[in-house]
Write a structure and sequence with these properties.
Length: about 700
């Protein structure tokens, strides 16, 4: 769905007492080697040049290694203070640099940075393995772990010891030397392949396809702002005077929703779903085959039946079987609902006399017609109330009402692209919480989708709290001509979603790096998705949804239609999402991971589940970045798992009769602050007072 994890989070890295630095002439000009003199010590983006990354990464690795060597060389009996604590805070320079590098490679890349990524990525993978497979270091960590119950540790310390020990075990520390050597090769190969996968998707999304229109008649059905945006894009694409449509959602979706020319809709949607599947140098099929095999090998090396079992063992769900049972519970009612939606749309098509059978590229077009007929609601009618500026005010309003916090636009904070805006986030009493970047629109060097990431995570050094630097990256509709960026309601909820991740990162407050904000993968979308609930509440809409020209508050009639249509197309959306989740699970639970034909595998796996051809999985394999180059492998299901939690959590606010119930808000903030300090289910139950219930989710989607 939305959030992607940055590629370079392979290992948990961070650090304290810096080791001696290699000083030479070049270092003096490298901003990574100087104390940041920027506000709140954010990265000095104005000074950072691509040539600074490699030396800084290399020096970071050297320092980190020296810190590890220092831990190993200690003569005293290993304990928390001489082993765990220095390990927990080690590698700070490397962490700082790789965060900047990984984030920029996702949001603001270019050929030079991509080339560097190919060089840097294997170095980081090797370094991660050098640490986790270091037998002397492991011996010390294990010694603390084995004696952890008699060392007089606090609850937080105990958890850190267990987490770090577990990292080593899952990193292969207990394997034979021979298997460790195999694991290193597997990890190295996997990191290269996932990088290649993401480069291919980036090129296929942003560069390799354009639908260029030169006949005005082919624009029939499109609104003036969409046409204007396509004209601007055409100029950018060096075809001035024409209209250019891309595979970025803000360009593609309005075309699929409104363009009357069916052949062109097919052409555009095919461009989208064939990404990475053209048999050329950007094709991802061979890469997928290799990734699936290597991951299976890794899962088995680690003593699990396969890769999914290895990954999910750490999650709330615990086993792939548990996930499968859960997904099936939703699949049957969702598929039934989607088939009903299709029948309703086909009836419209028949009535209009088009003599067509609806295909996948028709879905958005007829869904819009259905929305209009059934709910008398037109997406175009809503958009003027959701200018980017007003939606931004909306998220700030909700955060302020819930938590009392404020957001101050700061032009003195360095940014990595002129389109980025920076905010200082403050408590009600003015105390600094952190820095928040927002980056709203598509660019050539930016991956598709939306995600939230950090340039610095909250931590403590010498008892002093270091505050976080967080970034929300999105790909929303651009302003066109005199019209500001007007968001679709889907974009509105995406903004609330990423903002929820940002609040999680801003609020988390834990004494140790390893456990700060560390939650199971299937918990991580709770803080984000819960925020989406506020976006469509009538009382909240009235606070932020104002017409961009007249400042008129969104009329009650329109709100009523929006609320009434909240279950619109939910069959489709749930099915396309579940199909992708099921596909992910299929890839990572194969008993024989050798796949002859990726397209066939994908098709057969989903047809067997009963997926109808009018709906494609939300991501087909060849551009399924979440699982082949992001952090969601064997974990795409986590969004809907967490949806049970977020629907249930929001229900608590509803039940209380106050969407901003202060006591509940305080408890939810506590959940965010303390996340990572305990098992996910226990953290949740502490907030809710009971285990989560699936019913609110089924009801919200009209699946009950
Ligand atoms: Zn998310």
């Amino acid at each position: 769905m939305r959030k992607l994890i940055i590629v370079f989070c392979a290992l948990h890295l961070a650090s304290g007492a810096p080791a001696q630095m290699n000083t030479n002439k070049a270092d003096m000009n490298n901003p990574f080697f100087r104390e940041y003199k920027t506000p709140f010590q954010v990265p000095p983006f104005d000074d950072i040049k691509p040539e600074h990354f490699l030396p800084a990464i290399e020096e970071g690795i050297r320092q980190h290694t020296a810190e590890i060597d220092l831990i190993i060389s200690g003569r005293d009996l290993p304990d928390f203070n001489n082993t765990i604590l220095p390990y927990d805070t080690s590698g700070e320079l490397l962490s700082d640099v790789s965060k900047v590098f990984g984030n920029l490679n996702g949001a603001n890349t270019n050929a030079l940075i991509q080339k560097l990524a190919r060089e840097i990525s294997p170095k980081l993978t090797k370094h991660g393995d050098d640490i986790l497979l270091n037998p002397e270091l492991f011996r010390k960590i294990k010694s603390v772990y084995d004696h952890r119950l008699t060392l007089g540790l606090s609850g937080d310390q105990l958890r850190v010891v267990e987490k770090i020990y577990n990292d080593f075990v899952r990193g292969g520390a207990n394997l034979s030397a021979q298997d460790q050597a195999k694991l290193r090769l597997v990890n190295e190969e996997l990191s290269k392949l996932s990088l290649q996968f993401s480069e291919n998707v980036l090129a296929e999304t942003n560069k390799n396809f354009r639908l260029v229109i030169d006949n005005k008649k082919d624009l029939e059905g499109l609104s003036p702002d969409v046409i204007e945006a396509a004209a601007i894009q055409a100029t950018k694409d060096s075809v001035p005077g024409k209209w250019s449509f891309t595979l970025q959602k803000p360009s593609m979706l309005p075309f699929l929703q409104y363009a009357k020319n069916r052949n062109l809709r097919e052409k555009l949607y095919s461009g989208y779903f064939m990404r990475g599947d053209h048999g050329n140098k950007f094709d991802n099929k061979e890469i997928i085959k290799k990734i699936v095999q290597l991951r299976d090998e890794k899962g088995k090396l680690m003593g699990y039946p396969g890769f999914a079992a290895f990954v999910i063992a750490e999650n709330m769900a615990q086993t792939p079987q548990e996930v499968d049972v859960f997904l099936q519970k939703l699949w049957t009612p969702a598929l039934k609902r989607a088939k009903n939606e299709l029948a309703e749309m086909q009836a419209i098509a028949d009535r209009d006399g088009g003599k067509i059978k609806i295909q996948s590229w028709d879905w958005w077009f007829y869904a819009e017609k259905l929305r209009k007929e059934k709910y008398n609601l037109d997406e175009a009618e809503l958009k003027p109330y959701f200018s980017l500026e007003n939606v931004k005010k909306g998220i700030f309003y909700v955060a302020n009402k819930l938590y009392g916090i404020t957001f101050e636009n700061r032009n003195d904070i360095p940014i990595y692209n002129s389109e980025v805006v920076a905010y200082e986030v403050k408590e009600a009493d003015g105390k600094h919480i952190g820095v928040l970047y927002m980056d709203f629109h598509p660019r050539d060097g930016k991956r598709a989708g939306a995600w939230c990431t950090t340039y610095r995570t909250q931590k403590y050094r010498d008892g002093k709290k270091i505050t976080p630097v967080v970034s929300m990256v999105m790909n929303f509709t651009r302003p066109a001509g005199n019209v500001p960026a007007l968001l679709s309601f889907d974009e509105v909820t995406t903004m609330f979603h990423e903002f929820g991740h940002a609040l999680h990162r801003l609020f988390q407050d834990q004494p140790y790096d390893r456990t700060a904000g560390d939650v199971p993968r299937d918990f991580v979308e709770l803080p984000s998705q819960v925020m989406e609930n506020w976006a469509s509440e009538p009382a909240v809409l009235k606070a932020y949804a104002r017409h961009y020209q007249t400042a008129e508050i969104i009329p009650d009639g329109l709100i009523a239609k929006l609320v009434k249509s909240s279950q619109f197309n939910q069959g489709f959306e749930t099915v396309e999402y579940l199909a992708a989740s099921i596909l992910d699970l299929k890839y990572h639970t194969l008993s024989n991971p050798v796949i002859a034909d990726i397209a066939k595998f994908e098709n057969e796996s989903l047809t067997r589940e009963g997926l109808i051809p009018e709906i494609l999985p939300r991501y087909r394999s060849t551009y399924f970045s979440h699982i082949f180059s992001g952090g969601y492998s064997a974990g795409y299901y986590v969004y809907i798992w967490a949806a049970v939690l977020d629907a249930d959590a929001f229900e608590a606010f509803k039940e209380s009769g106050d969407l901003f119930n202060p006591a509940l808000a305080a408890k939810f903030r506590e959940l965010l602050t303390k996340s990572g300090s305990d098992d996910g289910m226990r953290i949740y139950t502490r907030f809710r007072g009971k285990a989560p219930d699936i019913q609110p989710l089924l009801h919200r989607r009209g699946l009950d």
